[in-house]
Amino acid sequence: MAGRIPLVLLACGSFNPITHQHMRLFELAKDHMHQTGQFQVVSGIVSPVGDSYGKKGLVASKHRLAMARLALQNSDWVTVDDWESQQADWTETVVTMRYHYNRIAALYSEASHKAADAPQLKLLCGADFMDTFKVPGLWREDHMEEVVGHFGLICVSRGMLQANQAIHESDILSKHSQSIFLVREWIHNEISATEVRRALRRGKSVKYLLPDSVIEYIRDHNLYTQESEMKNKDIKLRPLTKPLIQD
Amino acid sequence: MATQEKMKMVLLACGSFNPITNMHLRMFELARDHIEDTGRYRVVKGIVSPVGDGYKKQGLIEACHRLEMARLATESSDWITVDAWESQQPEWVETAKVVRHHHTEILADEDNNNDDVDTVRCGKRRKVMQNTNTENAHLNLLCGADVLESFAVPNLWKPDDIEEIVGRYGVACITRCGSDAEKFINQSDVLYKHRKNIHVVREWVTNEISATYVRRALRRGQSVRYLLPDPVVQYIQEHRLYSAESEKKNADVILAPLQRYSNTK
């Protein structure tokens, strides 16, 4: 594997709950980045968002972490990290990325003493994520520059249209289009965490959409009810209310 | 409604299962939920019946592997089992015959027929299956809308067989948002006649994992993890199934039903 840049994939999100679809993103991205000939994917990180994110229906992070860990217990390269969810307030994506990049770089420099060996860190996401860039007040421009331009994005989606449209409509994204890797998911699979929660509320089966261990956890803790879906109903998403602090 | 008033139902899925995927397994779950939602039935058993090698479909690997993968895939299910009868027959068997065979088995079933189901579960059951006796259960063929629509393909089905499957037994058909199974049923006299025996299970949220795609990804060394159960992925890796070579199998051979019905005058 001479000359390949080591790469770590970071997925931020609610993981409410984690599903096979989430785990597929990692598999697809790994294959794609390896196929470019430039990268060697060395690890993947699932970073569930903190409770203060304030998204409707978001269950406690301790559950979301536990479920993600159960889901990935048999994975030899993807792990779950709780740093983001342990922070007191909601943490900007770029801050989470900096944290992980620095942590990983420190580990590598201890091991090899060569700065050039430090892996790159890229954000793994779906096409919906690309659209969030245009929501007013949700992203700071300098954060967008850093996430997309400095680190890089890997966007997995079924069609290219939505992602390409989002890039086209944003000056910042267009400027850094070489740092945006678009990965095609050929399989038509619309099963999202939202759909899983809906099925659970209605007492329908979700088997084969997420690992059995996660389903068992959900049953044992009676997560995802009408009541849980109402959580944060009248609350604004934290990113929209958090005061801007110059860093 | 008292449990005794509900009719028992068994779902039978025939197909290549080359390989079995999470989508096949989801079909069973969706159908069971839908049918039980009517309040009239209790779905007591699901049967995966892989087609025999005599079907001669291109890329069809040996039945022994397809059976084993299906067994691994259904290990964690407390109601879905795998049946080898169809694949063990010396020649390809018409679906109607397979349905007939299983119906006979069901009528004869006396005792708890779940010896092949593990008692150790990795997850809690959705409900406790206290009585999984299939005696006198209805038997429905479980399939996708594409199978229903294939009834119209010349020489693929015997008209008598179609009549028997929908008339005497029944069909649970999983249909996607785009496909219009109701329209197809309406346009076919035989299907329309037996429309009461056809459960159209609408899949509101698309979940298509084609086995063709899976085989293609495997040929290219790409990951299929989370599209099929982990034990199946491992099995495929251990036995190095699905290569460019395996996909060429039966390339110049005519599909068994077409061969058989074209010759019959």
From TrEMBL, chain A:
Keywords: ATP-binding, Magnesium, NAD, Nucleotide-binding, Nucleotidyltransferase, Nucleus, Phosphoprotein, Pyridine nucleotide biosynthesis, Transferase, Zinc. One of its GO terms (cellular component) is mitochondrion. Residues 10-198 form the Cytidyltransferase-like domain. Homohexamer. Interacts with ADPRT/PARP1. One of its GO terms (molecular function) is nicotinate-nucleotide adenylyltransferase activity. Its cofactor is Mg(2+); Zn(2+). It holds the Pfam family CTP_transf_like. The keyword Phosphoprotein applies. Its EC number is 2.7.7.1, 2.7.7.18. This is Nicotinamide-nucleotide adenylyltransferase. GO terms for biological process: NAD+ biosynthetic process. Belongs to the eukaryotic NMN adenylyltransferase family. SUPFAM superfamilies: Nucleotidylyl transferase (SSF52374). Its main location: nucleus. It catalyses: beta-nicotinamide D-ribonucleotide + ATP + H(+) = diphosphate + NAD(+); nicotinate beta-D-ribonucleotide + ATP + H(+) = deamido-NAD(+) + diphosphate. Pathway: Cofactor biosynthesis; NAD(+) biosynthesis; NAD(+) from nicotinamide D-ribonucleotide: step 1/1; Cofactor biosynthesis; NAD(+) biosynthesis; deamido-NAD(+) from nicotinate D-ribonucleotide: step 1/1.
Automatic annotation (TrEMBL), chain B:
It is found in: Nucleus. Its EC number is 2.7.7.1, 2.7.7.18. It catalyses: beta-nicotinamide D-ribonucleotide + ATP + H(+) = diphosphate + NAD(+); nicotinate beta-D-ribonucleotide + ATP + H(+) = deamido-NAD(+) + diphosphate. Pathway: Cofactor biosynthesis; NAD(+) biosynthesis; deamido-NAD(+) from nicotinate D-ribonucleotide: step 1/1; Cofactor biosynthesis; NAD(+) biosynthesis; NAD(+) from nicotinamide D-ribonucleotide: step 1/1. The keyword Phosphoprotein applies. Residues 12-216 form the Cytidyltransferase-like domain. GO terms for cellular component: nucleus. Keywords: ATP-binding, Magnesium, NAD, Nucleotide-binding, Nucleotidyltransferase, Nucleus, Phosphoprotein, Pyridine nucleotide biosynthesis, Transferase, Zinc. GO terms for molecular function: ATP binding; nicotinamide-nucleotide adenylyltransferase activity; nicotinate-nucleotide adenylyltransferase activity. Belongs to the eukaryotic NMN adenylyltransferase family. This is Nicotinamide-nucleotide adenylyltransferase.
